[in-house]
Amino acid sequence: MLDIKIERTKAPKALPDKDDPLLFGKIFTDHMFVMDYKLGEGWYDPRIIPYQPLSLEPSAMVFHYGQEMFEGLKAYKARDGRILLFRPDMNAKRTNRTCERLCMPEIPEEDFVQAIKELVGIDKTWIPTKEGTSLYIRPFIIATSPFLGVRASHTYKFIIILSPVGAYYPEGLNPVKIWIEDEYVRAVKGGIGEAKAGGNYVASLRAQVKANEEGYSQVLWLDGIYRKYIEEVGAMNIFFKIGGRVVTPMLNGSILPGVTRDSVIKLCKDWGIEVEERIISIDEVYEAYKNGILEEVFGTGTAAVISPVGHLRWKDEVMQVNDGGIGDLSQKLYDKLTGIQLGEVTDVHNWTIEVE
Ligand SMILES: *Cc1c(COP(=O)(O)O)cnc(C)c1O
């Protein structure tokens, strides 16, 4: 149990207007959680303080060697007034797997969840209530030792900030256009692809820019060796429905193990649909498309929950999926997941946790 010191802001900011579209990740709440780490001492001084700039040495290792990790989850205001978190224990576990990979200190799972709960409780008036909105929670850890030289840092900061967000895609649950990237790669097995690290994102920018220029919103990555097997989308895992079967790439060491991915697999199982977690090549997807059995494609991730894919561009071919519309399974999964997150349907798996 952390003994969190609380310093409330003396200058609360104005809450966003009811009709503010709450573009993703632009507005931040009044407070933030901070905790420091020193080698030999462990984590110390957990505190909630007014949201403010950080003061770091220019030599802080995070600026030079990228030792940084982050997480992402959401808090929702249920219609009955309860505040719900969705599977925060999964983010705590993934944090520690990422930290292990990046040689960063782990955080006890219960401390991670406690810090989130207390911070969300303090800034609860910031949780928006309009359909599709939520409070996005961004925990992250940075290496702060003032040192130039490649090794693990001896000091770190664990910080949590909060951002009220509207729907990830302003158009709502609308099919996206995806660019299948066959030149650049995101990660290879043995690298840091399965860690939630900023470094994976800087590696992805060049292809993202290319896709955007061509009118596509996100990139679908192929494997780093053969450029043949499907990995995942920018910040989402990917699922295909082919001839009645649901398939998703297995966790192979280079893709991110998404909490939404795991939840989708479990919901499908509840409904008697077995999800095949296996290797799937772009050729298999293309062949299914040619044979008219590529029924649905959708991405899964905290930000968008379920993101139907309407178009897939591969080399010079554009595959239109489901006439560019939203598939039945995509819609059903979206409704069920958001229903659970908002406390509106029975949560048989006990995925939501209430913030007191
Ligand atoms: C965060 C993330 C996801 C989705 O994970 P969720 O836990 O479902 O939000 C997928 N891919 C990448 C690369 C990510 O960073």
Topology summary:
Elements: E1 5-6, E2 31-38, E3 42-50, H1 62-65, E4 68-70, E5 73-77, E6 83-86, H2 88-101, H3 109-122, E7 134-143, E8 155-165, E9 176-181, H4 198-202, H5 205-213, E10 218-222, E11 230-233, E12 237-242, E13 245-249, H6 259-270, E14 275-278, H7 282-290, E15 294-301, E16 305-314, E17 317-320, H8 328-341, E18 352-354
Parallel strand pairs: 1-3, 9-10, 9-16, 13-14
Antiparallel strand pairs: 2-3, 2-8, 4-7, 5-6, 5-7, 6-18, 7-8, 10-11, 12-13, 12-15, 15-16, 16-17
Keywords:
356 residues, alpha+beta, D-amino Acid Aminotransferase, Chain A, domain 2, nine-stranded mixed β-sheet, globular, binds pyridoxal-5'-phosphate
Topology-level CATH name of the largest domain: D-amino Acid Aminotransferase, Chain A, domain 2
Rg, Å, rounded: 21 Å
Q: Helix and strand succession?
A: EEEHEEEHHEEEHHEEEEHEHEEEHE
- Let me know the average pLDDT: 96
DSSP strand content: 25-35%
Task: Summarize it.
The chain is of the alpha+beta class and 356 residues long.
Question: Can you describe what's shown?
Answer:
The protein is an alpha+beta fold. The protein has 2 domains: 5-165, D-amino Acid Aminotransferase, Chain A, domain 1, CATH 3.30.470; 176-341, D-amino Acid Aminotransferase, Chain A, domain 2, CATH 3.20.10. Helices cover 23% and strands 30% of the residues. The chain has helices spanning 62-65, 88-101, 109-122, 198-202, 205-213, 259-270, 282-290, 328-341; strands at residues 5-6, 31-38, 42-50, 68-70, 73-77, 83-86, 134-143, 155-165, 176-181, 218-222, 230-233, 237-242, 245-249, 275-278, 294-301, 305-314, 317-320, 352-354. It is globular. The mean pLDDT is 96.
